[in-house]
Specification:
206 residues; 26% helix
Length: 206
């Protein structure tokens, strides 16, 4: 029988709920492939900016395109988030799949460009105009040439994500069993990707 740890012996290296928290055995290339699969299956996200005198402010945003580990959004340049990003370019993007508990958290820096960016036409899709409206002046039409339409590029510098490895019935069973036995539930893998990993993944996309 394993001797229980004393209160003084329980720390970040011995506590089983955190000591094996991150998957460090799966090759980084595979980790990125599985990350991209999760993101590409979840077009909706939360984009969080930092607002002076307020703090973090989040809003739901549809992803225009994922480019390797980086995220592109189309947005109205008159919206408050652009003012936020003028003051602080630090942003966070989060995704969550409520059906299987997968989630992704991307910390990064926002790079914003105006309507002259040619990528706007490349990532524009039908239905985007519904969020801009047609003002009837032949200029502000909600189409790619609308001067209000700008691009937000989130350049990732740290990514954490959770990939579920059990079905929902398996998840429920594992959690119930862990609760009864005192063990730590094993329902998936938690991974983190640092700036040096992200730089390699970004270069591989070129």
């Amino acid at each position: 029988m394993v001797k229980p740890l004393t209160e003084e012996e329980v720390n970040s290296k011995t506590d089983p709920s955190v000591s094996k928290q991150y998957d460090e055995s799966t090759p980084k290339e595979e980790q990125f492939k599985e990350l991209y699969k999760i993101i590409d299956g979840l077009k909706g996200s939360l984009l969080t900016t930092i607002r002076p005198d307020v703090g973090p402010v989040s809003r739901s945003m549809a992803v225009a395109k994922r480019v390797g580990p980086d995220i592109l959004y189309l947005a109205n340049i008159h919206s408050q988030k652009f003012e936020d990003m003028k003051q602080d370019k630090t942003v966070q993007v989060t995704f969550q799949n409520s059906s299987n508990q997968d989630w992704v958290s991307i910390s990064g820096t926002a790079v914003t460009t105006d309507n002259a960016d040619p990528r706007i036409k490349q990532v524009y899709s039908k239905g985007v105009n519904a969020w801009f409206g047609d003002l009837g002046d032949g200029i502000h039409t909600g189409m790619p040439e609308d001067p209000r339409m700008a691009l937000i590029e989130v350049k990732a510098n740290y990514i954490a994500y959770w990939k579920t490895t059990s079905s929902m019935p398996g998840f429920i069973k594992e959690v119930a069993q862990a609760s009864l036995t005192g063990q730590v539930a094993d329902t998936g893998v938690n991974r983190q990707l640092f700036d040096k990993d992200i730089q390699v993944a970004r270069e591989s996309e070129k």
